[in-house]
């Protein structure tokens, strides 16, 4: 139990990662796939952010009152990664709308069937 | 002039980026094409100057915004990425003159502008991935190029282009996320994102579990991007149903940049060939490469859509390149990098010629092409020459790279690999031969009889690539010799 609690951030990361990837693979609905993809990407944000936090540390604004600071780098990186993630999901959704217009369905297997003939 | 010289690494990326936003602002097709043309040619010139400077004075380090590395982002140009920059910007500069004819036939003025905007963003991303010396920057540029290429593929005339783009988006994003996980683990272990800094710190801790996990994530992520068998599933449809220009451009550049990333990660930052051969990676890559060479070639033989056939052929050729990487010797890496260069020329040329056929005939189904050799003699002659180069006939560029790959295998005493390389090339001969047979030895159909030769704007860019494919078959002082110098740097992890 203590093993899990000591590194709870990593366990949550792993669960989200596997869960997200599973949704992408297992679901046939294209919107649900994108939801899974989004969860998968979110797990990575946690992976980056949690090692940057130092217990008792404050925001890295230099002042005489504080000696311990958290690492600001991961926040900057993840801000960028969130933007990339938003762009990916937006483009994915736009494609799903176009697929729906072209095929009349967003189910993977039905689209696949229509492509065969 | 001196100032401009200093700023070359930044200009390499900034030029196409600014041009892309200009295209999006003006939204007037012909103007956008002119902007794309000039910025493409300029970035090719920048790449040439960069290569000359690297040859003259060694590694160039450029501090973005004046923040010194490892805290700021560094652009670091050595022989390896200067070579790749030249491939990417060169292929792009040849393709742009062709695009105007091909794109204006199908899209209105605004749509054309968006297409050029996407094209330039792909170029920006690919050049950025190649030039940057910062691991996270690699991810950002990779996603810029990937997102733009999904949009470009979705502009194909077939509705299957949409599903191909969607599939590519899902797999590409999973690949990119794997790469970020790998980079994140490396960062957590070393506290740095600068590739040069990483290369200095990793060797001490290379056998710890997070670092090995990072290597695994990076390998899988990059393999997805470069379409290594069996992670190639997105590629055939994306190339087959996207616009011809997009297929030619992506086939010539996107997978090559992913291969560069693989080399960079495996050799430069993890400590050269010694580390690489300690891991189980050489065996795994060798098996996957051989599977790609055979499985993809056999699938290519049975395709009725020629664009799809060439897409599968790309998967097979990537197998050849990865085979070279798996040996991790000077000769085999020379072969891999030369093949990267030659394949970019050959595949881009083949897709351009197919685009010309698509432009005239409106189809690239193999049965629709019967007798086309009589009506479009220049197009088909070019197809045959590039096809021969793809097979690896002596006197063409393809022969040189396969020669080095074979030599690399022989040096390791694995003569049977040589047999496999030759037999995979024979499979190439079968699928190229099928097209040649239909095009030259069958009676033209009614539709083919009415065809004219492809317009000259579309032919000369393709012939430029054909000339290059022949030239580099005889004179290897540029392609193979540069590749050998780069291979030496890779094997010894000099950065």
Give an account of the 3D structure.
The complex is a heterodimer of chains A (117) and B (495). Chain A is mainly α and 117 residues long. Helix content of chain A is 74%, strand content 0%. Chain A has a single domain (2-116), classed as Helix Hairpins (Orthogonal Bundle). In chain A, helix 2 (8-26) runs antiparallel to helix 3 (30-52). The model of chain A has no long low-confidence stretch (mean pLDDT 88). Helices cover 79% and strands 2% of the residues of chain B. The model of chain B has no long low-confidence stretch (mean pLDDT 90). With 495 residues, chain B is mainly α. Classes of the chains: A mainly alpha (117), B mainly alpha (495).
CATH structural architecture of chain A = Orthogonal Bundle
For the biggest β-sheet of chain B, the strand order reads 1-2
| CATH level 1 class label of chain A | Mainly Alpha
The biggest beta sheet of chain B is recorded as: 2 strands, antiparallel
What's the CATH topology label of chain A? Helix Hairpins
Proportion in β-strands of chain B: under 5%
Instruction: Quote the average pLDDT of chain A.
Output: 88
Count of β-strands of chain A: 0
The termini of chain B sit apart by: 28 Å
Q: Give the number of helices of chain A.
A: 5
Question: Roughly what fraction of the amino acids of chain A lie in strands?
Answer: under 5%
């Amino acid at each position: 139990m203590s093993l899990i609690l000591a590194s709870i951030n990593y366990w949550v990361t792993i669960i989200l990662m596997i869960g997200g990837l599973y949704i992408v693979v297992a679901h046939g609905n294209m919107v649900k796939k994108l939801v899974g993809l989004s969860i998968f990407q979110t797990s990575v944000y946690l992976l980056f952010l949690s090692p940057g936090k130092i217990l008792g540390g404050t925001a890295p604004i230099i002042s005489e009152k504080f000696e311990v600071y958290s690492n600001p780098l991961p926040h900057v990186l993840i801000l960028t990664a969130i933007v990339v993630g938003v762009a990916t999901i937006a483009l994915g959704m736009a494609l799903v709308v176009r697929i729906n217009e072209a095929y009349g369905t967003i189910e993977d297997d039905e689209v696949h069937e229509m492509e065969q003939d | 002039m001196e100032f401009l010289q200093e700023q070359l690494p930044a200009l390499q990326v900034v030029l196409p980026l600014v041009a892309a936003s200009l295209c999006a602002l003006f939204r007037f097709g012909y103007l956008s094409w002119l902007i794309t043309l000039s910025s493409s040619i300029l970035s090719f010139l920048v790449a040439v100057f960069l290569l000359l400077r690297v040859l003259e004075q060694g590694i160039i380090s450029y501090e973005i915004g004046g923040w010194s590395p490892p805290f700021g982002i560094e652009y670091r140009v050595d022989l390896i990425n200067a070579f790749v920059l030249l491939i990417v910007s060169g292929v792009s500069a040849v393709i742009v003159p062709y695009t105007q004819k091909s794109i204006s036939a199908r899209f209105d003025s605004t749509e054309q502008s968006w297409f050029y905007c996407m094209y330039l963003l792909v170029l920006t991303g690919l050049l950025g991935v190649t030039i940057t010396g910062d691991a996270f920057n690699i991810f950002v540029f990779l996603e810029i190029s990937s997102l733009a290429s999904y949009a470009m593929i979705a502009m194909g005339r077939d509705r299957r282009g949409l599903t191909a783009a969607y599939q590519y988006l899902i797999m590409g994003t999973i690949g990119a996320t794997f790469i970020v996980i790998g980079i994140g683990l490396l960062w957590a272990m070393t506290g740095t994102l600068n590739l040069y800094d990483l290369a200095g710190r990793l060797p001490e801790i290379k056998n710890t579990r997070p670092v090995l996990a990072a290597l695994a994530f990076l390998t899988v992520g990059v393999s997805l991007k470069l379409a290594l068998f069996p992670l190639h599933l997105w590629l055939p449809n994306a190339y087959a149903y996207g616009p011809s220009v997009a297929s030619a451009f992506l086939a010539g550049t996107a997978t090559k940049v992913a291969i560069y990333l693989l080399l960079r990660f495996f050799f430069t930052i993890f400590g050269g060939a010694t580390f690489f051969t300690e891991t189980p990676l050489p065996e795994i890559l060798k098996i996957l490469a051989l599977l790609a060479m055979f499985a993809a070639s056999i699938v290519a033989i049975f395709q009725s859509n020629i664009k799809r056939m060439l897409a599968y052929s790309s998967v097979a050729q990537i197998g050849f390149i990865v085979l070279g990487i798996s040996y991790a010797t000077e000769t085999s890496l020379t072969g891999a990098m030369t093949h990267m260069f030659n394949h970019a020329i050959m595949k881009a040329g083949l897709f351009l010629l197919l685009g010309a056929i698509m432009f005239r005939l409106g189809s690239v189904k193999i049965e629709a092409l019967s007798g086309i050799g009589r009506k479009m003699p220049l197009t088909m002659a070019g197809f045959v020459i590039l096809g021969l180069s793809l097979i690896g006939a002596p006197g063409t560029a393809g022969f040189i790279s396969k020669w080095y790959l074979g030599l690399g295998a022989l040096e390791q005493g694995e003569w049977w690999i040589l047999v496999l390389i030759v037999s995979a090339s024979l499979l190439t001969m079968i699928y190229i031969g099928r097209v040649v047979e239909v095009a030259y030895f069958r009676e033209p159909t009614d539709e083919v009889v009415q065809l004219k030769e492809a317009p000259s704007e579309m032919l000369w860019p393709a012939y430029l690539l054909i000339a290059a494919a022949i030239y580099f078959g005889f004179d290897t002082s540029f392609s193979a010799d540069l590749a050998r110098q780069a291979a030496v740097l890779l094997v010894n992890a000099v950065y």
